[in-house]
């Protein structure tokens, strides 16, 4: 027995009351709107169009900086026939870029992330440090070179890096010994749904640095506190209880959203199974208010 | 119940305490890095300490977490310092893992994240290893999927120090553990931080092994210090009947001292490596507090040199 309400069981006036209870929807993308890096999930485009027609404001909050905002917008248009604008997409590369601008950051950045993430920072005028030392490390001397020989940096940024390595994390750790060096993190999921199961996420690697340095990063991806503040400040006119947060991850979406006092809807099209939800006790910080098999259930009430 | 006082400096013992201490152990298990030498220096006169121990009839073995060098390199280093050490006297994770796998009659494929010398030890012992990817992958989920989803029947994942450790290797290891609930997870060195120079630490292998433990929810069999399984292996293979008559010597509280305490050995911390006097004095956990401490193993030579010969 789940303590969360299933959207399918909301009919008539109950469903109307639910739809009237929020003005703004924060919506995850991978595992909610579309299958990770693939096609739209059946029904989700219609549900999003329905929300738009009801006058709900829509903002997509994704941890995916691997696809650029342009890619996202094009995918919404081509596959979903939805008109989404760039400012409606919140993702770590952008929130980190905005943060660096807001603190008037100057200096060199050691950025452990994908190429599109790095390009976004470079396009905004930020300078990124090069890797140092040989590609394959054969000796302690090589390792020393990789860790210590690069230029000193004033910020370390960590997000998803397909080729994250011990040497990169060691260099980040050494640079962060300097208390002036900023420590920023993007996507921080410990595990990411992928294929039939889950794979180790960027959060695990960020934690290696956090524990070694003894200092917490400013986390501007889900489920980071700094991102929570950014989201709360985006719509100061809308009280948190009139926001619906939709996601597929208990830790990265539901727990994250509940900490801000948003209403929460978990969809089962991503990494979470119905039994994962029914296991949760009443006061669990990741217990969603609502559960749906898919985003399409927002429209279909049969 | 045994009550333990504060750690005592071995050169500040009274004559009676000293005699009792010297007579209280027959066997010494000693760490190497930070005790005899480090990446940057040789600990002055440390070899004199071991020579004195051997003259006093104590059996000396070395237990290191370092499998990055070959056994030959290690023995040559001892020899250069004037100490004759036989291969049987040196225990390191690669070799301990071989012994452990033989003890449990392990058969099957192993996926391994470790250095070349480490892998060579396992291959020479006849084990079948998978590793890699040994180059960076293309930045896409498609190429990641190709790299980490593999259907070969891996029955053990082994992780130790790998200078070229990457996330695809860890993700691949995690997949094997999730696919096969029987798949063993075996770790070697556990150090969270490795001292490479005075006041300079780099991230050690421990946090990477921890990623696999946390992601898989599986306990690791640990055959580096302070692993419980290493202790059992040593006690069995060295036929240690009375653990309290063994003295563990090392420079790291979390590795050497904790390991010694866990095994019921006496413990001696030397301040020639990864732990300063201030760090020792600040330590409060009884699991990490040594019985004795010394500036370096050279102090042991002085301790024994002043011991009356009459002692049997």
From TrEMBL, chain A:
Superkingdom to which the source organism belongs: Eukaryota
Cofactor: Mg(2+)
Binding site for Mg(2+): 28, 30, 248
GO molecular function, one term: phosphatase activity
InterPro entries xrefs: HAD-like_sf, HAD-SF_hydro_IIA, HAD_sf
Cofactor comment text: Divalent metal ions. Mg(2+) is the most effective.
Keywords annotated in UniProt: Hydrolase, Magnesium, Metal-binding
Gene Ontology cellular-component terms listed: cytoplasm
Active site: 28, 30
Residues that bind substrate: 222
Short name of any one Pfam family annotated for the protein: Hydrolase_6
Keyword Cell cycle among UniProt keywords: no
Family that this chain belongs to: Belongs to the HAD-like hydrolase superfamily.
The protein, known as: 4-nitrophenylphosphatase
Gene designation per UniProt: LOC6901420
TrEMBL record, chain B:
A Pfam family: Hydrolase_like
Sites where the protein binds substrate: 225
GO molecular function per UniProt: metal ion binding; phosphatase activity
Keyword Hydrolase: yes
Gene3D superfamilies attached to this UniProt entry: HAD superfamily/HAD-like
Source species, domain of life: Eukaryota
Cofactor(s) demanded: Mg(2+)
GO CC list: cytoplasm
Swiss-Prot/TrEMBL keywords: Hydrolase, Magnesium, Metal-binding
Record note on cofactor: Divalent metal ions. Mg(2+) is the most effective.
UniProt-annotated binding residues for Mg(2+): 31, 33, 251
Assigned protein family: Belongs to the HAD-like hydrolase superfamily.
Protein name: Pyridoxal phosphate phosphatase
Origin species: Drosophila pseudoobscura pseudoobscura
Lineage, top ranks: Eukaryota, Metazoa, Ecdysozoa, Arthropoda, Hexapoda
């Amino acid at each position: 027995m789940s303590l969360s309400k299933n959207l399918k069981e909301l009919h008539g006036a109950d469903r109307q009351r639910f739809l009237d209870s929020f003005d703004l929807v924060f919506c995850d993308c991978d595992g909610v709107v579309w299958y990770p890096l693939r096609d739209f999930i059946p029904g989700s485009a219609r549900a999003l169009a329905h929300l738009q027609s009801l006058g709900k404001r829509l903002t997509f909050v994704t941890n995916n900086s691997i696809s650029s905002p342009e890619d996202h917008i094009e995918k919404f248009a081509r596959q979903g026939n939805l008109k989404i604008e760039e400012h409606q997409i919140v993702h770590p590369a952008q929130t980190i870029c905005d943060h660096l601008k807001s603190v008037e950051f100057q200096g060199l950045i050691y950025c452990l992330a994908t190429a599109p993430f790095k390009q976004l920072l470079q396009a905004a005028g930020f300078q990124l440090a090069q890797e140092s030392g040989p590609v394959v490390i054969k000796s302690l001397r090589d390792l020393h070179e990789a860790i210590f020989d690069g230029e000193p940096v004033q910020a370390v940024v960590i997000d998803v890096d397909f080729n994250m390595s011990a040497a990169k994390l060691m260099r980040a750790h050494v640079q962060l010994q300097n208390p002036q060096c900023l420590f920023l993190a993007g996507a921080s999921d410990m595990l990411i749904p992928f294929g039939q199961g889950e794979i180790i996420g960027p959060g695990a690697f960020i934690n290696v640095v956090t524990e070694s340095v003894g200092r917490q990063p400013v986390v501007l991806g889900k489920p980071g506190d700094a991102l929570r503040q950014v989201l709360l400040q985006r719509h100061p006119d809308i009280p948190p209880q009139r926001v619906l947060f939709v996601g597929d991850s208990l830790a990265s979406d539901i727990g994250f959203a509940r900490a801000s006092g948003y209403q929460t809807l978990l969809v089962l099209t991503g990494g979470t199974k119905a039994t994962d939800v029914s296991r949760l006790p009443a006061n669990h910080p990741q217990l969603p208010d609502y559960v749906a098999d898919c985003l399409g259930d927002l429209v279909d009430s049969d | 119940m045994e009550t333990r006082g504060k750690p005592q400096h071995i050169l500040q013992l009274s004559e009676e305490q000293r005699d009792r201490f010297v007579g209280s152990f027959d066997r010494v298990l000693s760490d190497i890095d930070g005790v005899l030498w480090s990446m940057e220096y040789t600990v002055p006169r440390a070899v004199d300490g071991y020579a004195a121990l051997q003259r006093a009839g104590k059996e000396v073995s070395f237990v290191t977490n370092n499998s990055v060098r070959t056994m030959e390199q290690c023995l040559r280093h001892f020899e250069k310092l004037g100490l004759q050490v036989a291969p049987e006297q040196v225990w390191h994770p690669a070799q301990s893992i071989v012994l452990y796998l033989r003890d449990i009659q392990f058969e099957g494929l192993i996926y391994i994240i470790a250095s070349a010398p480490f892998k060579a030890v396992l291959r020479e012992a006849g084990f079948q290893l998978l590793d890699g990817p040994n180059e960076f992958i293309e930045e896409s989920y498609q190429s990641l999927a190709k790299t980490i989803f593999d259907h070969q029947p891996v029955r053990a994942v082994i992780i130790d120090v790998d200078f070229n450790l990457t996330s695809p290797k860890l993700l691949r290891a995690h997949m094997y553990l999730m696919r096969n609930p029987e798949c063993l997870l075996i770790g070697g060195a556990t150090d969270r931080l490795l001292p490479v120079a005075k006041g300079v630490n780099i991230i050690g292998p421990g946090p990477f092994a921890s990623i696999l433990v946390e992601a898989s929810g599986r306990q690791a069999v640990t055959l580096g210090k302070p692993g419980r399984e290493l202790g059992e292996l040593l006690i069995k293979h060295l036929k240690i009947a009375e653990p309290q008559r063994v003295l563990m010597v090392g420079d790291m509280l979390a590795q050497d001292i904790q390991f010694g305490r866990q095994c019921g050995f006496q413990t001696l911390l030397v301040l020639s490596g990864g732990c300063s006097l201030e760090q020792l004095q600040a330590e409060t956990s009884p699991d990490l507090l040594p019985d004795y401490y010394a500036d370096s193993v050279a102090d042991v030579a002085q301790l024994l040199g002043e011991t009356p010969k009459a002692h049997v």
